[in-house]
Amino acid sequence: MPRGIRIQSSISGKADEMVWQNAQRRFIRRLLQATASLCLIAAMHVHADDMTGQWREARKGDRPEQVLDEARNGRLPVFDPGRMQVFPTHGEGAWVVLRPLPPWVSGERVLSIRSPGMGRVTLYDGRGGTIGMALDDFGPAVHGHGRLVFDIPASLPASSPLLVKFEPSSTLSAPVTFRIDTWPDYLRSDAQWLAFAAACFAVMLAMAAMALCFALMLRDMTFAWYAGYLLCYSLIQGYQTGFLFHPLELKALAGTSATLGVAAVAMSVSFAALFMTRFAVLSEFAPLLRMPVLGFAIGMPVVVLLRVSGIDALVQVAQTLINPLLILGALLLLVASAIAAVRGSRHAWFFLAGWTPLLILTALCSAQMNGVLTDVSWLPDAALAAGAFEAIVLSIGLADRALTIRRDRDRARVLADSDALTGVLNRRAFTEVATEILGSGTSRPAALLFFDLDRFKELNDCQGHAAGDRALVAVAAALRMELRPSDLLARYGGEEFVALLQGVDRENAMQVATRLCRRVHRLDLEVGPNGALLTVSIGMAMRHANDTVDSLVERADTAMYAAKLAGRNRVMSAAPPTPVLVRKNEAKANPSV
Ligand SMILES: Nc1nc2c(ncn2[C@@H]2O[C@H](COP(=O)(O)OP(=O)(O)OP(=O)(O)O)[C@@H](O)[C@H]2O)c(=O)[nH]1
Predict the structure, then answer these.
(1) Which residue spans traverse the membrane (predicted)?
(2) Residues 6+ apart with CB under 8 A from 351
(3) Are residues 577 and 431 in the same domain?
């Protein structure tokens, strides 16, 4: 929209803005409600009772047959393989015996271990053979997605117990579930998971790429911190689900979860802190918490450096600090954004809506490590989906922020461009916009009207300056009403106005000017005690090639004086520019001539 019209429509824009803000408030409220419902989804999970399980910690010198014997004799603790269970991977690891229950799945089948963490798992096939596997393993021909899968040959009786060993590992053990499926069933669920995970990663990475582009284009670090956060969170999920290795086949990242994975966890919270500080405008809405949040954002990379330093003592310190710091930091972000939101930061609400489900799910996944919510095996997948959900919510928030900034800028521009008393364009803005218009097409006809109120001094003297101001406002409003939205109207000086009419010929311009002249008279504003009404004298000049705004105004002003001399309350048309004037303008436009 041209700048002049934008300013002119600013008043009606205010009403639209209020409607828009209410709609936004409603949208955010609904978003929060949806988020809350997402967090409160009942922990319903149906799992098939198709196996029983027994387990014990592995000891040095254990033999597989001995463990199977112990299981057969009922000397091992029992667990439900369909519920999430953590098996120790410190020391010598852990043995797990799975006993399929009838009805048995015969023929070729698949044992899958969901969310196994980064450790290695070995299946003993009962004939002295073993198959070892890990999420970042590229050896086996068949590899699951988001899970470890073992091919159970048809030759192994369906009722045979399966012996699995969780090998010793320095990485944290994760709660796992076990399942035996026929190949078609397994392939179907694997394809579903792949589609789900690919969609979540695609959303997060697309939003991160978009944020990076915006960071570069707008030179706004808020977008950069946001992109950094999303990339780190995607990396964390990529490690945890094994998506980086299968299907992405990023072999270079195999074995890096203890360093790069941990760094990604720490950096994601650090980036989230930096992002939230700017996004929720903590400096304005929660200034006391800004420094602690920034301190946390800077502290986390330091801990990461200690963790990857390779110096034992420092690694130990980092290892001790990292988890408590993560928990404290996450809570700090939550509290800071909640305070900012309550104090009026609209974008803090977006942050809360996106970040809270993720935080709750992360906390619930951690709780599963301690034997809580063992039925809810979809929680790790929900944490992945929450990442995508958060990416969408925060991207909408960032778009809203960009719009808000733009609207504020537009409003400031409108204020700077408009005349404080009458609300029409001021002289500087008129000159700029009119120069743009005249420069954009010389072939299009245009006319400039110069208005000067008659005997305005008398009105001021007799009725006071305030009455004079009211008259100026009334005249400006009347002129604005009469003109087309595309015509520019400006207050040029004290009681002088100018209008630039586009696409009119001389005859049309004279008709418009005459109509405006009559309109001012019809305002019935008395000038003095003798009952004379306020009138206006108008000079009209048609735009010629080589005309500048100044030359056009100058000719219209001269015509206006002629109207004054001829008795006021009338319109006079300016003569075409004299050759001297044209030559002067040509010289101005091209100083070398
Ligand atoms: N109330 C009010 N008066 C203003 C404002 N700006 C300029 N004026 C007054 O407008 C009057 C202009 O007077 P003149 O230039 O003598 O012109 P005039 O009285 O209209 O006489 P003619 O133009 O010859 O018809 C002066 O008295 C200014 O003080 C304003 O913002 N508000």
Answers:
(1) 193-216, 223-240, 252-276, 288-309, 321-342, 349-370, 382-403
(2) 276, 279, 280, 337, 341, 394, 397
(3) yes
Q: Is the CB of 495 under 6 A from ligand 1?
A: yes
> Atom 1, ligand 1: which residue's CA is nearest?
468
- For ligand 1, whether the C-beta of 452 sits within 6 Å is yes
Q: Using a 6 Å cutoff on CB, does residue 564 contact ligand 1? A: yes
Pairing of strands 51-57, 488-493: unpaired
Q: How far apart are CA 95 and CA 79, in angstroms?
A: 12
pLDDT tens by residue, 421-478: 999 999 999 999 999 988 886 678 999 999 999 999 999 999 999 999 999 999 999 9
Distance, CA of 548 to CA of 434 (rounded, Å): 9
Asked if the interface predicted TM-score (ipTM) of this complex is over 0.90, the answer is yes
Segment holding 225, helix H or strand E: helix 221-241
What is the rounded CA–CA span in Å between residue 509 and residue 487? Answer: 12
Task: Phi first, then psi: give them for residue 537, nearest 5 degrees.
Answer: -105, 135
Q: What is the pLDDT of residue 38?
A: 54
> The whole model's pTM is what?
0.72
State the alpha helices, DSSP H only, in 242-345.
Answer: 262-279, 282-285, 287-307, 312-342
What's the structural domain count of the chain?
Answer: 3
What pLDDT, in 10s, does the model give residues 400-430?
999 999 999 999 988 899 999 999 999 999 9
The reply to whether ligand 1 has any atom less than 6 angstroms from the CB of 465 is yes
pLDDT at residue 225 tops 90:
yes
pLDDT in the model for residue 288: 96
Residue among 89, 95, 25, 88 nearest 63 (CA): 95
Q: How many CA within 13 A on the CB side of residue 67?
A: 25
Ligand 1 mean position to 467 CA, how many Å? 12
CATH of the domain at 23: 1.20.1070
Q: Are 199 and 207 in contact (CB under 8 A)?
A: no
**Domain span at residue 124?**
51-189
Residue nearest to atom 11 of ligand 1 (CA): 457
Return the top range by mean pLDDT from 153-162, 192-201, 324-333. Answer: 192-201
Q: Is 468 in the pocket of ligand 1 (CB under 6 A)?
A: yes
Domain boundary among 387, 414, 441: 414
